[in-house]
Each structure stands twice: as structure tokens, then as C-alpha cells.
Specification:
Number of strands of chain A: 3
Radius of gyration of chain A: 21 Å
Number of helices of chain A: 21
Oligomer: heterodimer
Number of strands of chain B: 2
Largest sheet of chain A: 3 strands, mixed
Structural class of chain A: mainly alpha
Largest sheet of chain B: 2 strands, antiparallel
Strand content of chain B: under 5%
Strand content of chain A: under 5%
Chain lengths: ~500, ~500
């Protein structure tokens, strides 16, 4: 049930205000950083304030001025939107603390631009999470593309500039495809409103539906780094580590996957997608991505690149989940957004902490690092195994439901790949951990500063908590199940 | 006063053009002030005209009290009010911001620039309110001849570019006049309303087809529709920076308006394939202009070819001629004017102390974040990133192309966006991330206040028009678009 509420719009204000305040206080770093923390905290509080109502079945909705005649700026906190917004704002708060420690320790240049773009990214992410129609979604999606660019090229080297060019080329091409899809949807469905179970008429010409499907998959798939549209992501690892962390966990990359979930659940509807046979294609793409990215990850020596390929692989679990066509699978896929967010941000935080403390990026240089930084590497090992799907972590909760959903749908190939992928996950993470703890030890202990260490321990604990009590801090499981129920229909 | 609103903007611009030389006797500053005030007053008068007809009214005005068809009739309806307000307001802001560049380019002769610029504006505003085809020709020539002089007022290559512009522009004007003559021979009238009533009876005549053909080709040359765009790249590249801030923003818009007006209100080409042909030609221009822009290394020429591409969007929408497509085309007249004025103004400010106009020599924005930021806003609008205004005109055009069942045109619109993303990226990257230049490092931190103010106004307008486009569309463009779209 929709209830008019200013809260969805209010949730966007802190980040937008922070952009201006950060630029205005550019000559006073402590104030500038205080604005970031405050905005993240305010955003988290405003999003959290909506969770009880959403859990009770209400959908706080704010309708703004018309974007084009008949299509307003529509912000609606449904279960899917609030889950993603809560993850994004909560992890932004943690990342801000981590970022401050990180950029101070490395004395990064251009910190004003860095923090301002960070805030703008979060503005866009929460906006697209809460977007109630496709046009609003598209607007925030494109703002996110542009806002993340200065973060990707932050280093200012030729290599960073090249990564930025490729990033923009890929994401703007995706955006163009998405624009075509949105415009076509408006003509075909007569509405752009997200509705559980979809808005596209089942009677439409199959060719039109397939055309739309392909445009949507390319449009969201570039950001979601679905093979073969993933090339930009490993290159974008040139960005500072906190950027990679947040972009993988909740912002750019996750926004692409979130878009796929929205499109499958609220534009096509799982039923129509299954009837037209596109669900099978989507699942096939996801399975191929899971396997290929895991195999490539095996061969990586640069830790951040390994994590990038791990992300590519893990995100396709979400896509697989919504493509399976079963309610359990859909819930598992959505839940995996949360699992992957918490665990992957932990892994990136660890990589950043290692870089700040020991200035190494290559796995081959990390021998014995676990004995110098036992807490950091302990968290890394825990997050890695939880992400692989070993119980009792967050990865297990979501992957178990994916397996169950695949089995219910009779998708035995998916079951097989899911199981094989657990083995591959363990296989590409184990060498890192073994080398870190078994390698020749450098003398002395040297953990990262507390501003880096505390966030990564927090997120690791969050990952464990999500596995043990899936409805603990954030009612992730019940929200995911509510979403799956609503899109599957009666 | 209210009754004279149709003629007021044109008269104010003309009065300014006459007063500037007199004011110049009191000094350069006075001339500049008079010019900006005159253009600003024309803008305000045009906005008053918008308020007068918003929602769908029509005001007819008989010049000197002589009624049509004998006298000169001016017509203010939502379409003409919108177009003249767009042209007058953008021109006023561009003139206000062109001061430092005009002083640098012309020195003591700057008043001549202002006088000619106001003559151009007089002609353009006259086109938008003309109620008969011959007066469109007269005003077209007034604006064009002043435009040739403005382009040729630069250094040596500008003279050649201006001459080329003159030759091709005159060919275009002659074609147009020839076409109008043929229609006059057929019907015995030049008044748009009369013509619209009498043409259906003679539409079988080969003279009719010939007349329409000549008019369309003539206007297409003035619009610089690919492949008839030959005059534009040189003219906009070599025009002095203050001229470049004005002409590319507004000069091709009035002929585009004349094309829409003639085609949709006078000829109403039910039987002729001319509209469809224009849609496809527009799509060709979108893609070809974008491809040309990609290959440029001179920032000014890159922006010039971008104009070829963007004008293609407007012609595409006019050719499709359904409600959504026309809305997009009309809105793009305003959007493109705003972003092109912004880009050329910013570029002019950067060129004041850059090593040269090539992309590799621009590397100044890190010391001038405001100019660089305004360029980014204009670039995002060009690419079509919401909520910048440029997104919304493309959205309506897309809707129109989908409605017309033309997937190839849909693809062309999207491809044009993508090409714009690449060429605008090259420009913005050069400005923001180019190697720091020793000379630039010693230069001023930002531009003169007048330039900055104009750039900020244009950047705010880009976002404001984007976020408020639904109001403009509801009150002005949709009534204008649906009136002709359903009449067909």
C-alpha cells in the first residue's frame, strides 16, 4: 500500500547538500570530512526510519514535479529499494570513516573533488534505489555514471585516464541502450511505473519484447559487468581502494545488478520473461559469467584485480537468482546483493589496509603479511570463505537459497555451476591466505590505523551476522522474501 | 503596449543597432552597455510575448495598421513566441558575456561588432514573427548579410570563410526566393494563411513541387543541413571569439524555425515525400556531423561540426512532424542555443591565453574550475545526461521516432548521443586533464566577471530548462506541436 511521505525525498537531501558543503569548505579539511560523515549518518538515519513501515507492507512514496508531461519524479521506498538504499547509506558511513583514514595516510591529492564525487555517487545510488519509475531511475543511473568518473581517474596518471575513457565509453554506451529501452517501454507499455510483476503487455510482439530485453540487458549489463561487457571493470581498479570498495559493494557495479533485478521483477515480470524464453538466456549469461570470471580470477596476481573478477562472478549470482523463475531463487538473488555488499567491501578494505601499511598490491609480495597484520588478514580470510559460500556466513545464506531455487525450478545445470563455483571461489582465495600466513614473516606487527581497521572488522562482523541472524540489524531476508513474493504474483 | 508585443522585440533590437553607433561617440563602454540593454530588452519583450500566448493564444499584428493581405502581417503564437524568446534571451546573455572577447578581438572597433550583432538579432527575431513568406526572405537577408560581415571581421582566414559563407548563403537565399516566387505565381499571395488556404487547390501543379523543393533546399543551406553544411565549419572556426559566442547559438535557429513554419503551417505536405526526406536527411546530419566532430583536433571546429549534428536533430523532428517529435525539435532549438553559446563563450575565455585552439593546447580548467564546470554542464546537456536540458529534447524526439515506427531513426538519435559523448569527452578531457601549460599557469585564475556571470546563467538555464521542461512543453510546445500534427 502506498503512503505519501516526504521521507524518500528527504533521504536524498544529505548527500546533495554534502556536495555543496564539501566544495565550500575545501580549504578546511577537518570540516570537509565532518560534512561527509554527517551526511552519511543523516542519510542512513533517514533510510532506516523508513524500514519499519516498509517491513509492515507500506510503501512511502514521494511524487515530485513532472520530468516530462505525465511522468513525475517518483521516489517510492518498496522492499527492494529500501534494502538497497539501506545497504548503500550504511556502507557509505563506514566507507567515509575508512576513506578519511586512507586518504590521510597516503596524503592523496584532490581530496575535495574526491569527497564531493563520493557524496554525489551516493546521492545517485539512493536515488536510483528509491526511483519509482524508469525515467527517474534512468536519470540517477546516468548521474551515477558521470559522478564516478572523477573517482576512477583520481590518480591523474595516463593509465588512470585510459581506464576512465574506457569506463565512460562502456557505461555511456550502456546508458544509451538503456535510454532506447526506456523510451520503447513508454511506447509499448504506456507507463514507466515500476509495478511488481511487470508492466509490459504479454500480448506484445515477441520481436519487440526481445528487442527490449536485449537493450535492457546491455543497458544494465555494462554496469553489472556481465561477460562480455565487463572489460572496463578490472581496468577501473586503478581508482583509490575505498572507491573500488564502495563501487563494487553498492554503487556503480551494484547499481547495474540492481537495475537487472528491477527490470526482471518490475518491468518484464518473471512470468513474462520465462514465457518468452528470455529467462533462460539471462540465466545462461549469468552462468557463463560466474564460471569464466572465477577461472580468470585464478590467474590474477594483483589483489585488486582478483577482487574485480570475483565481483564479476559474484554479481551474476544475483542475475542468476532473478532469472531462475522461482520465488526462492529470486529471494536468494536479492539477498546476495546484501551478502556480496558486506563481504566484498570487507575484502577491499583489507586490500586497502595492506596497501597503506605495507605498500604492496601483488599477491606474490604478500608473503607473511598475515603475521604482521593478523586482524586484517583474519578478516580477509573470514570474508573470503564466507563469500565463497561456506557456512555460517552471509554468502551461505544467499547461495543456499539460490541452490534451493535452482533445484525447485529443475535447473540442474545451475545447481552444478553453483557448486563448482564454491570450489573455484575457495581455490582462488586460498593461495592468498596461505601465502599471507605461511610465507616468510617480516619482523614485528604492524596493523593499519584504527580508522582503517575498525571499518573492516565491522563489515566482516556484519557479514557473519547476516549469515547467523539474517533478519538482525537489517531485516534483509524478510525484505528479500517480500520482494520475491510480490513479483511472483498470486 | 500589449497590442504591440509581436513587433516589440524586433523593434528593440533594431533600435539598439541604430543607437550603438551614436553611443559609441560617448565611448566603447557606452556602446557595449546600449547593446546589452537593447538585447536584454528584446529578450524581456519576447518573454512577455510568451506570457501573452502561453496555453495556445494567437496575436495578429498589422504593421502600420495595414491589414493583411495588403499590409505586412506579424503573427505571435506559441511557436513564434517560444522561438523568438529563445533567440533573444540567449543572444542577450551571449552579448553580455562577449565583452572581454570583443575588446580583445576588435579593440576600438568593438562598437561595430555590437551594431552588427544587433542587426543579426533584428533579422532573426523578424523571421520568427513574419506572417508572410516574402518578409521571411527580407529578414533572412538582413540577418545573413550582417552575419557575413561579422564572420569576415576576423584575421585572414576569417575573410575567406566569410566570403564562402556569403556565396553559399546567397545561393540559399536565392533558392528560397525562387521557391516563394513560384508559389506566388501559382496563388497570387505571399501571406502564410492565404497560401495555406489556396495551395491545396494547386498542389497537382509541377510548379508547386518545384516551389516547395526550392524553399526547402534554400532553407536547408541556411540551416547548414548535411550535406549542405559546407559554409558552417569554416565560418564558425575562423569567426572572432565574440562572434562565435553569438552566431552558432542563434543564427541557424531562425531558418530552422522558418522551415518548420513553412512546411507545417503553409505547405502541409500530405502528398509530398518532402517531410520524410527531411527526417532522413536530419538523421544523416546527426550521424555525419557527429563523425566529423570526432575527427577534429581544433576545438572550435569540433564545436562547429557538433552544430551540424545537433541541427540534424531539429530537422529530424520537423520531418517526422508528429506531436512528440515536433516538441523535441522545438525544445532542441532552445537547448542547443543555450549549450552552444555556453561552450563557445567558455572556449573564447580559455583561448584568451591558451597557446592555440587545438585540443592539445587547451589545458586550463584545473586553474579555472568555474569555466571548466560550466563547460561540463553544457557537454552533459549535449550528450543528453538528465537532468540537463539536452536529455529532454532527445527524449521527445525518441518518442516521436518510435511513434512513427522508424527504428532506424531511433538508432540515429541514440547514435548521435553516443558520438556527442565521445567528441564532447575529448574536449572536456583536454580542458580538464591536459598537461599544465607554463603560460596558463601564470595567467589569470578565472575569466572576467561578465563572462563568468554569462556562463553561470547559461549553466543554470541548462538545468532549469531541463527540470522545468514539462511546463514549457505543456504551455507552449505541445499546443504548437499538436496543432500542426493533427492538421495533417
Amino acid at each position: 500500500m502506498e503512503v505519501a511521505s516526504p521521507l524518500p525525498a528527504a533521504a536524498l537531501v544529505p548527500a546533495a547538500a554534502a556536495v555543496a558543503l564539501i566544495v565550500l569548505s575545501r580549504r578546511r579539511p577537518p570540516l570537509r570530512e565532518a560534512w561527509s560523515v554527517l551526511a552519511a549518518a543523516a542519510q542512513t538515519a533517514l533510510v532506516a526510519a523508513m524500514i519499519p513501515a516498509v517491513s509492515a507492507g507500506a510503501r512511502p512514496t514521494w511524487e515530485g514535479p513532472a520530468l516530462v508531461p505525465g511522468v513525475p519524479v517518483l521516489l517510492r521506498a518498496d522492499a527492494l529499494g529500501i534494502l538497497f538504499a539501506a545497504l548503500a547509506s550504511g556502507l557509505w558511513l563506514v566507507t567515509t570513516v575508512y576513506s578519511i583514514g586512507y586518504v590521510r595516510a597516503l596524503a592523496e591529492p584532490r581530496q575535495t573533488r574526491y569527497f564531493a564525487c563520493f557524496a554525489l555517487c551516493l546521492f545517485a545510488t539512493v536515488g536510483l534505489a528509491l526511483a519509482g519509475n524508469l525515467l527517474t531511475f534512468f536519470g540517477f543511473f546516468e548521474i551515477l555514471t558521470v559522478a564516478a568518473y572523477p573517482l576512477v581517474v583520481h590518480k591523474g596518471t595516463e593509465e588512470a585516464a585510459r581506464a576512465g575513457r574506457i569506463y565512460l565509453l562502456y557505461t555511456l554506451t550502456g546508458g544509451t541502450a538503456l535510454l532506447g529501452a526506456v523510451a520503447w517501454t513508454a511506447a509499448l507499455a504506456g507507463t514507466l511505473d515500476f509495478r511488481p510483476g511487470g508492466i509490459l503487455p504479454a500480448g506484445a510482439a515477441p520481436a519487440a519484447l526481445w528487442g527490449l530485453f536485449i537493450l535492457f540487458v546491455v543497458g544494465c549489463g555494462v554496469k553489472a559487468a556481465v561477460v562480455p561487457l565487463h572489460t572496463w571493470l578490472p581496468l577501473a581498479m586503478i581508482a583509490p581502494t575505498p572507491v573500488s570498495a564502495l563501487l563494487h559493494a553498492v554503487a556503480v557495479v551494484k547499481a547495474g545488478v540492481f537495475g537487472v533485478v528491477r527490470v526482471v521483477g518490475f518491468v518484464f515480470g518473471p512470468g513474462l520473461l520465462g514465457d518468452m524464453g528470455a529467462a533462460g538466456l539471462l540465466a545462461g549469461l549469468a552462468l557463463a559469467t560466474i564460471l569464466l570470471a572465477s577461472l580468470v580470477a585464478l590467474a590474477q596476481d594483483n589483489l585488486k584485480r582478483l577482487l574485480a573478477f570475483s565481483t564479476i562472478s559474484q554479481l551474476s549470482y544475483v542475475i542468476l537468482g532473478v532469472a531462475l523463475g522461482t520465488e526462492t531463487g529470486f529471494a536468494g538473488g536479492v539477498l546476495h546483493i546484501a551478502s556480496h555488499a558486506l563481504l566484498k567491501i570487507t575484502l577491499f578494505f583489507c586490500a586497502g589496509a595492506i596497501y597503506v601499511t605495507a605498500h604492496v598490491e601483488r599477491i606474490s609480495d604478500m608473503g607473511g603479511i598475515g603475521r604482521r597484520m593478523p586482524l586484517t588478514m583474519g578478516a580477509f580470510a573470514a570474508a573470503a570463505f564466507m563469500l565463497a559460500g561456506l557456512p555460517p556466513g552471509a554468502g551461505f545464506t544467499s547461495k543456499w537459497r539460490l541452490l534451493e531455487g535452482a533445484a525447485q525450478g529443475g535447473a540442474w545445470l545451475a545447481v552444478l555451476v553453483l557448486l563448482a563455483s564454491v570450489v573455484l571461489n575457495v581455490a582462488y582465495f586460498t593461495p592468498v591466505i596461505v601465502r599471507a600466513f605461511a610465507g616468510p614473516a617480516a619482523p614485528g606487527r604492524a596493523e593499519a590505523p584504527a580508522s582503517l581497521l575498525v571499518p573492516l572488522l565491522l563489515t566482516a562482523a556484519g557479514g557473519l551476522a547476516l549469515g547467523l541472524v539474517p533478519d538482525g540489524v537489517l531485516p534483509a531476508l524478510s525484505l528479500a522474501q517480500a520482494i520475491a513474493r510480490s513479483v511472483s504474483g498470486p | 503596449m500589449g497590442a504591440h508585443l509581436p513587433i516589440l522585440p524586433t523593434l528593440l533590437a533594431l533600435a539598439g543597432a541604430l543607437l550603438v553607433p551614436i553611443a559609441a561617440l560617448a565611448g566603447r563602454r557606452a556602446a557595449e552597455g546600449v547593446a546589452v540593454v537593447a538585447a536584454g530588452a528584446a529578450g524581456l519583450a519576447a518573454l512577455a510575448g510568451v506570457a501573452e500566448v502561453a496555453g495556445g493564444g494567437v496575436r495578429r499584428y498589422a504593421v502600420a495598421g495595414w491589414p493583411a493581405p495588403w499590409g505586412i502581417e506579424l503573427v505571435l503564437d506559441p511557436l513564434s513566441a517560444f522561438t523568438s524568446a529563445a533567440i533573444a534571451c540567449v543572444a542577450a546573455v551571449a552579448l553580455a558575456g562577449a565583452g572581454p572577447a570583443a575588446r580583445a578581438a576588435f579593440g576600438g572597433a568593438a562598437p561595430r561588432f555590437y551594431a552588427l550583432a544587433l542587426v543579426v538579432l533584428t533579422g532573426l527575431l523578424g523571421i520568427t514573427v513574419s506572417g508572410d513568406l516574402f518578409n521571411v526572405f527580407v529578414f533572412l537577408e538582413i540577418s545573413s548579410i550582417a552575419g557575413y560581415a561579422l564572420v569576415a571581421s576576423g584575421a585572414a582566414p576569417a575573410l575567406a570563410a566569410g566570403f564562402r559563407y556569403l556565396v553559399l548563403g546567397t545561393v540559399g537565399a536565392s533558392f528560397y526566393l525562387l521557391g516563394v516566387g513560384l508559389l506566388y505565381a501559382l496563388t497570387g499571395t505571399l501571406n502564410m494563411g492565404d497560401l495555406a488556404a489556396r495551395l491545396p487547390a494547386v498542389s497537382a501543379s509541377p510548379l508547386f513541387a518545384g516551389g516547395v523543393g526550392f524553399i526547402v533546399v534554400g532553407l536547408a543551406i541556411k540551416i547548414a543541413l548535411f550535406p549542405l553544411h559546407g559554409w558552417l565549419p569554416d565560418a564558425y572556426t575562423h569567426a572572432p571569439p565574440p562572434v562565435a559566442a553569438l552566431l552558432p547559438a542563434v543564427a541557424t535557429k531562425a531558418p530552422a524555425y522558418a522551415l518548420a513554419r513553412t512546411l507545417l503551417y503553409v505547405i502541409r505536405p500530405d502528398e509530398l515525400p518532402v517531410a520524410t526526406a527531411l527526417a532522413w536527411a536530419g538523421a544523416g546530419a546527426v550521424v555525419a556531423g557527429g563523425l566529423f566532430a570526432l575527427r577534429q583536433t581544433d576545438a572550435r571546429r569540433l564545436l562547429a561540426y557538433s552544430s551540424v549534428s545537433q541541427m540534424g536533430y531539429i530537422v529530424l523532428g520537423v520531418g517526422l512532424a508528429n506531436g512528440a517529435a515536433l516538441t523535441g525539435a522545438y525544445l532542441h532549438v532552445l537547448n542547443h542555443a543555450v549549450m552552444k553559446a555556453s561552450l563557445f563563450l567558455a572556449l573564447g575565455a580559455l583561448l584568451l591565453d591558451a597557446r592555440g585552439p587545438s585540443l592539445s593546447a587547451l589545458s586550463l580548467a584545473s586553474r579555472r574550475p568555474l569555466i571548466g564546470g560550466c563547460m561540463v554542464v553544457a557537454a552533459l546537456s549535449m550528450v543528453g545526461v538528465p537532468p540537463a536540458a539536452g536529455f529532454f529534447s532527445k527524449w521527445y524526439l525518441l518518442q516521436g521516432a518510435i511513434e512513427a515506427g522508424q527504428p532506424v531513426l531511433v538508432a540515429a538519435i541514440l547514435l548521435g548521443s553516443l558520438l556527442a559523448a565521445v567528441y564532447m569527452y575529448r574536449l572536456t578531457e583536454a580542458v580538464w586533464f591536459g598537461p599544465e601549460d607554463a603560460r596558463a599557469a601564470g595567467g589569470r585564475a578565472e575569466a572576467a566577471p561578465a563572462v563568468l556571470a554569462a556562463l553561470l546563467v547559461l549553466a543554470v538555464a541548462t538545468l532549469g530548462v531541463g527540470l522545468g521542461n514539462a511546463v514549457i512543453v505543456d504551455r507552449l510546445l505541445a499546443p504548437a506541436a499538436t496543432a500542426t500534427a493533427t492538421a495533417r
